[in-house]
Specification:
homotetramer; alpha/beta
Chain lengths: ~450, ~450, ~450, ~450
């Protein structure tokens, strides 16, 4: 372990997840020599920042630690000389997510936080903000690691690598962790007894599983999947996959593959929720309101149990673990978003992938996964192309590029309807899409239809 | 030109296209030293073979040629010592095509001869028959070229290369020819004045266009596309593409790209036709009945004008041209389905592509096209993977593989509905799908649902 | 054919090759509507420019043509509005080539115009000059084609593409032409009756040969090679290849492969010539002196027969042919140096290759060659890497890069001796290597040894 | 740790290295639940097997262990139900190695155990024997891991993967270990404090080094290399590399790179040794004779210190470590020869590479290294092609293939001299080259020269 005390900055510090993050740091107090934690938010998030920031302070105090917890709206002051910067911001807050879900559904197409039309708009809103943070980091803390768990985490990571030209970035997601926990349970084993080999893209990866004796257990888990229940993460339906298709795949899908493998079924389920004003975003908004009520209680000095029901469990803990793994050169395996470098043969060398990686003091070193079979290969190559177009549209504000991304996204029905949804979303989110200003004006003037 | 007289065998000789083929040979009588033409069909096609075969004989006689025109149901007798074998068969005849179109549409998904669920079933029915022909060829005419224009022409070509292990195969389609003619007209030029560079897959390719002075005219044609009408081939709707998306593509799409770029719009148009019992297959069946009535007329001694309305114009002429180009080492450019060999960097080296090729006596040499941009790359990589799975399912009869192909095909909504349509099509076509016998029985017994 | 009259500029116009170039234009007078030919040279070449330029004028006049033949030392005046620029310059003239050959040989290593230590130094001297011409062209004739036949033609082409960022460049060599002529003769055929498929790098390519009937004749030519004589080009020894190795290769080597496949034997032959002051450069210098004596004769009005003995026969004719093929959109096949674009799968996508290409008005379109077998693949990948390093060293003047290129060049024995030869050549050529000024000074001061 | 007791078989058990191997097992007695160790040798090695086998028994007894140590000439009896098979055999013993070194040197070319002409002949003799072992393993212990440290370890591993179709194979070498130890010392650090990232081929790899803080120390080590001494392994000269070339490389070379980067200097050093009958093989033969004298001493019950001078220190220990790492799913990093799978982008996907790998119960998972710069890329691609040809020649006995491998090997001067050395080595080793029987007869009859 290194001696120097470290400074950690969390952008979007007013998030409801912050207590899990603080808990994660406290759990690692013996391995992370923290001096300062800076929780940063914007004017619109000031109230939440105060609430959750004060809870964070109570938690740190309760743990008997002398860490400084700073709450600020001044991002640049916070970033100065930081060692690690984590980003957990949500541009436009949950109201924007509600639009990402409801507008596509109102046209009969799937709406989802990170997939389809909604996911692309989350990228359009988020990527320019993250690139702004990266510009500040280059100036104020050029040796800091950026630990991103803002969705869409894979596209954000690729944007930072390609357009931010910043290499010390790692993206994170809780889905691999959830699969590891759930499938270990299925097999009656501890996760440590198994080797999970993940590869793919954020929210679009597969894995294979091996035991200590070297046996591949992938098929055993597939068998279990079609015996027991299928639900892995809180925020995705537990609808069953089709058995023969998964067996043909010869790998384990992730929970999000339901949107692609069971698209039609998922759509019908979501349309039902849409009618009942009960889309995921709407549920989450209610849960968050309750959480902030809890957080206000001055007697609350630990992370409340209810946060685990929020849907992003293990996210913040993963962020703490990657910070500790890099800081301490832990040489453990984590699943992260990082530059491909050939680890996934079928994807471009310079793209971001989500992959089991060996974490060292110099960052993640992806473990070679090799070639996919045709079914996985074709789909992931399409998804990566869609990501590339989406990122480019997010950076440039080019309308044709955005329409192209909509056209090839397998969750968006191609054609006039795609264009209508694109236009409606551009208008709905216009406050957060300065790069698309010209196109939005043309739409409003009826010149782009 | 070589001296030896040649023997040409046409499998599916009873097709309504045969008069165009015969006309094509007659037009090339000075460059093609034909001795025998064998028109082969199966018992079910015997009547049509007689009708069209007799017309063929009248056409040859009218042209003052001494070519022998043989009509036979004995494929092996025909293949013996052939120089060129062309395949234009349709397993299950137009009734099968009607099912390929109507069954998917009855579930609200696009049905089409070569795309989506219907196209995959055409592959399932056709590939085993073609591989059987190839086995006969290896024995009876191992130096003959197989000129395939049976759809799906790209998948058939790849199946012959990979599973038939037969290299002297070339696939053909009339779509590039139609684009070349139409777009030359748009520019007010002769096709010979322009260089059309095509690359992609059968019914899924793009092209760029250059004039003799070396200027790229791709953008000029895009401009024209959004001024004038868009219709290129008889059998595909002329619905307009979305301008900004095509401009972003920076290449010209083919007519079939409408199914992918304007999917939702095309679906609605087809659903209307479905309701009116007027799908393309139903129309074609009516046209063909009329054609055969015409063909019966003993006074008809040339290809009737009405055939040009049939939808496959230039198909058979292309077959004659490739036969002449190979036989005469013509060194001209044609767009054919052939082994990739790196010409399309983004697709597997050993796969079949449809590409502008230099035609020599030793076959087509594809002209390097290079890398696609992200939008084209992602989609074509998905399509190729779908083709690989479809071909493998066609060869093996593996149900999981077929379901996988359905799952990743962008024209099939993934999930339970895909499985229902798969099962319904398997039952509907069971007479032509011996390789799927076991799975079909299970479906019928309610064991696969 | 286009209407506009064209302006052709030849840099290095004082070359002894110029009469072949002029003859080539005259032969094509009906297809090339030439208005002006500008022969450009530098102060040091002024006398030769006058001699050969006047011969050129006599040749044009003798042919009854009204073309203007301008002789000038003002490159920028010449380039203004040019349509085609050909480069046939030799930085440092033949005296530099003598050093390229004799200095390596004095250390017991092969010295050659385009291979080994000498070839790398020719690149070091030439590339900066060509890049200077390209900068002028971007300003003065940005639509002109650069037709380069200055050696090393492949590296020069790659430098123009990568560092000059100029796409309208094509490199040429006479070796493929010589092989085509020689091997057609071996088979008793006309070149037009055969399809020669070449691929590789300049002076490092292989080919396969097919007849009009589609038979591959590669093996037939190998058989002939080991029956008859082996000599293909004037400037390379006719020493026999090793039969079993060539048979294992399953392709035909080029004449220059002797330096790599028969290295030790070639070295011994060259050392003998070195002792006798009869290296190729020394011979050529004598031949050139004789040629210029001939050229002075005011009665000489055609290309003298003796030039054909010079060693570069067909070079200039190829330049004329590529100019005509591009200008007239001839759609013929020529072997040129052009951007790979995947045509040679085993080499980097963006590198220059020498390959059979379809020549259109928009330039050469390489015909896909595909993968090499291991023997060819490994060597050409090494050679390409060496070329990349050499070009980078030529552009940057980086000593370590130059030493690296020497280290991996298979014609240079690695180690201290390589460094000694590198240093000696840097000193010897210092007038033509401004980019290496700092390193040369250090060598002279004994600081780099 | 697993419960079952394990059976380890060592082929070439009579090797002088066996005491290090036994010591390695004894050191790991708490993690390796050994039941039986079988030392296998052939008739010619019987005496050595007895001597070293009895020492092994004394060592085990001295350590207070109940392991059975079997000595046998019956390979199949030994292999039955083995868990791990290690191979440390030397076909033809040290006398063959002496020929591998002296015959090339007698023609003025480098002779070396694993490089150049000698190394290729070691492959020719060894690969068929190893493939025979693999055939036995498939039958008798199909789940056993083959741990190969017979040289050339990389080519042997590739042969087992490609021609043996056996996946549970791992190759080992001590060179990376020696570099890790030496360079850690240079930096005044423990190896555990650093991350060494190796990639390349056996005896032809490079590495980069990072500290726990994430700083790359590669350049620091290069600086040290040119300050202090350069010697890393006993068996390779400590001659200095050229500083500018190594700096340009931006990676650390391995000791064996001297044969390629300093070829000429190494050759002169070896020619001196050749004259003095003091080549490495001759030295080793003397050392081994002394070692066996020591081993005979019934009072010797531990590995004698002198073995550490033998040159292969850490080899056997690495074998014990990989066995333990796989058996115990240790999840540590080791440098092994394994299937590439894209880890080294520039080499064929299915080839064997030597690379830092994460060792699990299901074998090594290579850590992605990515692309090399041009200098490293070109050379390693050539070396891999040479390896492929050598392996194919070893398997098929094809003379042309062997001559091709000689032609492209950068340590063999191409041409007639290569052929002479090839022929002389074929004759010299004919007892161990049954696959080349026909060619050897032709050489002896003067029909191949």
């Amino acid at each position: 372990m290194k001696n120097n005390k470290i400074k950690i900055v969390t952008i979007g510090g007013g998030s409801s997840y912050t207590p899990e993050l603080i808990e994660g740091f406290i759990k690692r107090k013996d391995e992370l020599p923290i001096k300062e934690i800076w929780l940063v938010d914007i004017e619109d998030g000031k109230e939440k920042l105060e609430i959750v920031g004060n809870l964070a302070r109570r938690m740190v105090k309760e743990a008997g630690l002398d860490w400084e917890v700073h709450l600020t709206l001044d991002r640049r002051a916070a970033l100065k000389d930081a060692d690690f910067v984590s980003t957990q911001l949500r541009v436009g807050l949950l109201d924007a997510r509600i639009k990402d879900e409801r507008i596509p559904l109102s046209h009969g197409m799937l709406g989802q936080e990170t997939n389809g039309a909604g996911g692309m708009f989350k990228a359009f809103r988020t990527i320019p903000v993250i690139l702004g943070i990266v510009e500040d980091m280059k100036e104020l803390c050029p040796n800091a690691w950026l630990v991103n768990f803002t969705n869409p985490a894979g596209m954000v990571t690729e944007a930072v690598l390609k357009y931010g030209n910043y290499n010390k970035v790692v993206g994170l997601c809780n889905v691999p962790i959830m699969h590891t926990i759930k499938e270990s349970e299925m097999l009656g084993k501890n996760p440590e007894e198994l080797f999970f080999h993940y590869a793919g893209l954020n929210h679009y990866h597969w894995h294979r599983v091996y035991d200590k004796e070297g046996n591949e257990l992938t098929l055993d888990i597939i068998n279990e999947m079609f015996n027991g229940d299928n639900k892995v993460v809180e925020n995705i339906s537990g609808i069953k996959f089709m058995e023969e298709q998964i067996r043909d795949l010869e790998m384990l899908p992730c929970a999000y593959h339901r949107y692609y493998y069971m698209h039609d079924d998922m759509l019908h389920e979501e349309l039902e929720e849409f009618k009942n004003n009960n889309t995921r975003a709407e549920k989450v908004k209610r849960v968050e309101a309750e959480l902030f009520e809890l957080y206000k209680d001055p007697n609350l000095k630990v992370k409340p149990e209810q946060l685990n029901q929020r849907g992003g469990a293990h996210y913040s803990d993963a962020a703490c673990e990657i910070i500790s793994s890099i800081h301490n050169d832990k040489r453990s395996i984590m699943v992260v978003d990082t530059r491909n470098n050939g680890a996934v043969t079928d994807l471009p060398y310079d793209s971001a992938v989500e992959i089991s990686s060996y974490i060292t003091g110099s960052g993640p070193k992806p473990i070679t996964f090799g070639k996919f079979n045709a079914a996985a290969r074709g789909q992931i190559q399409l998804m990566k192309a869609m990501e590339e177009l989406t990122i480019e549209a997010a950076v440039t504000g080019d309308y044709g590029k955005a329409l192209q991304a909509f056209t090839i996204n397998p969750m968006v029905p191609a054609g006039t309807v795609a264009r209508e949804v694109l236009n409606e979303l551009l208008i709905a989110h216009k406050d957060y899409l300065p790069q698309f200003k010209d196109s939005i004006e043309k739409i409003e003037e009826g010149k782009l239809k």
